[in-house]
Amino acid sequence: MTTLPLLRGSRPAALDRLGQRAEEPTGSTVQPRRGRTARILLGDESDPAWARPGLWALLALSAMVYLWNLTNSGYANDFYAAAVKSGTQSWTAWLFGSLDSANAITVDKPPASLWVMGLSARLFGFSSFSLLLPQALMGIGTVATVAAAVRRWHGHAAGLVAGALVLVTPVAAMMFRFDNPDAMLTLLMSLAGYCVVRAIETSRGRTALRWMVAAGAAIGFAFLTKMLQGMLVLPGFVLAYALAAPRSIRARLGHLLAALLSMVVSAGWFVALVSLWPAARRAYIGGSTNNSLWELALGYNGLGRILGGAGNGGGGQGGGPGGGFSGSTGITRMFNSQFATETSWFLPAALILLLAGLAARGLAPRTDRVRASLVVWGGWMVSTALVLSFMEGTVHTYYAIALTPGIAATIAVAGRELVEQGRREGAVGIVWRTVVALAVAVTAGWGFHLLETSADGWNSWLRWVALVGGLAGALAYLVLGISQRKQLQTLALAALIAGSVAAVTPAAAWTVATVNVGHTGSMPTSGPAVAGSAMGGMGGGQRGGTPPTGTAPTGTAPTGTAPTGTQQGQSSTGSAPTGNGGGDAEQTSSALTELLNSTSSRWSAAVIGDQTAAGYILDSDTAVMSIGGWSGSDENVTLEQFKAYVANGDISYFISGGGRGGPGGDSGSGAEISQWVQENFTAKTVGGATVYDLTSS
């Protein structure tokens, strides 16, 4: 019986057409094949003895990083936490991603990530842990998926390296412990990449078709998680399959069309559902101009992000379009002071190795797997980085988590290939060893620079460990590798491993520091507290527990601010973190919370802006209407509609101020409603907030 030739790094077991192990040569000892459970736990019989223990160690370490003290950020981003809480109170709110359980307005993203967190909260009860547990599990899943995808073609060592690089990337550690949609987005894109790899490797057309359909479905759900950002990986995926799949061009194009159809169906069903569902019986689509999910995808969350426009500024300050909290647009944006410490630690090495890896495989056959892998993962990295670099609309630095799998896999794949090429004799081997050594040295130097410029003296010895160790390891690898003696080759490889470990020390330390502090609000950044990042972010303090011993409230809330809830963890300054209004967290909220909880109307209160409403939703057991959405300018409730709600007794109170649209809502219907309320109802102060009783005539 004939067997297919085995490619380096692929599974060694030759299979016959029945899926059983092929017959061994006469006289050989046939070992019984392990069962499925045994293979999962122990690996295949032919795997290196260290391979499966190494994988389990990587996953255990991932679990420790992503699950350790998971609740130290409280509810993290109040905006999404409030929507999750509302989803535990109303299945309609859960389905559409409504901010409030009475369905006034949705968050400004599709709800796929909220579905998962909402189910967790329903299962375990709403809390910081149940909110963030799915995110942490998605992080572990991403590490495993990237490692598995790389291992299939490039061996166990490369797979472990890829997974480890995901793990020690700071922005990943932050977002896999945070309730933004980016955790689920990254996992779904990684799963799609794995499916493309499986589709390319098989020679069976129907099997390839199934994997491509699965890839399309994963991207479709990525769209339902964060819309068009989920499609940034498509250029690399499409090119790799079109280039390297071992079948006719007609079959390749057919499979790509099937993947496209799968993507449209897996994303389109929900778009159609929103369009067909009576608008009066669901929440207004937050962020849209016409209550349409499709318009949200193409407008505010689509071209608006790329080209800028109303409600899509880059922060309102800083040089050039898209500046402010993300820095100026341009090819160097991923290396600026805002983005650099999030994900650029390994980006220079990845770019160097990608170019060298493609050059090394230049004359390989069309179906060459190394080149195909570099197109899959390198294409992911390049296309995502370019879009993020030139976006003129809103772009937060934590968006860079989407780069992480691409960077990690590119380094692992290209690094392994170039190390193999470096074993060759003569000038060719020297060239490839030099490239590898350069990548290690650049990583060490860039890590030194980032710690020196971003950490304000934080553990300054780390940068010297990285620089000296990285350079020494790179040099030793380069010199020792000249000899073809086996012992010196082994020493060269050991030097390369030691230098690489030293070079990634700054990123690993930054990741540990990120895990050890809480992060809240809408603009979290990674790193230690001294870097000015811990507890960072606009729009909310920490909720979900009690303040640490010895801390105290920060003062009295100014008039019109949203309340804060009970607090958990410790802020970067060592005192209890503050809430949406930045004021007293306990005394002021208790009076207002009691007032809200005493109501029986559909909405206990109405406020201007999502962030303000989110705070009240989390602090009370009621639905709170947001007027104006995230920006304060959404036309989700007109003045006439608001008057009708008041006349019907659907809203008990109006709380003035606190929205991003200004103290009373300075644009759209929010301004009109605020003015009407002020002219027709009497204000009173409750717990430091200005409250209008809409039930009094």
Write the layout of secondary structure elements.
Layout: H1 36-42, H2 51-67, H3 78-87, H4 91-96, H5 112-124, H6 128-154, H7 156-167, H8 170-175, H9 182-201, H10 205-226, H11 234-244, H12 249-276, H13 293-307, H14 340-343, H15 347-360, H16 369-390, H17 404-421, H18 426-454, H19 461-480, H20 486-503, H21 505-515, H22 587-597, E1 603-608, H23 610-619, E2 624-627, H24 639-647, E3 651-655, H25 668-680, E4 683-686, E5 689-693
Parallel strand pairs: 1-2, 1-3
Antiparallel strand pairs: 3-5, 4-5
Helix pairs in contact: 2-6, 2-7, 3-5, 3-23, 5-6, 6-7, 6-9, 6-17, 7-17, 9-10, 9-11, 9-16, 10-12, 11-16, 15-16, 15-17, 15-18, 16-17, 17-18, 18-19, 18-20, 19-20
Q: What is the average of the pLDDT values?
A: 85
Q: Structural class of the helix and strand makeup?
A: mainly alpha
Biggest sheet features: 5 strands, mixed
Radius of gyration over C-alpha positions, nearest whole angstrom? 27 Å
- The total count of helices amounts to 25
Distance between the termini: 91 Å
Shape by Cα distribution: elongated
Uncertain ranges: 1-28, 314-323, 532-536, 545-588, 658-665
Helix fraction by DSSP (H/I, runs of at least 4) = 40-55%
Strand content: under 5%
- Structure summary, number of beta strands: 5
| Strand order in the largest sheet | 2-1-3-5-4
What is the string of SSEs from the N terminus onward? Answer: HHHHHHHHHHHHHHHHHHHHHHEHEHEHEE
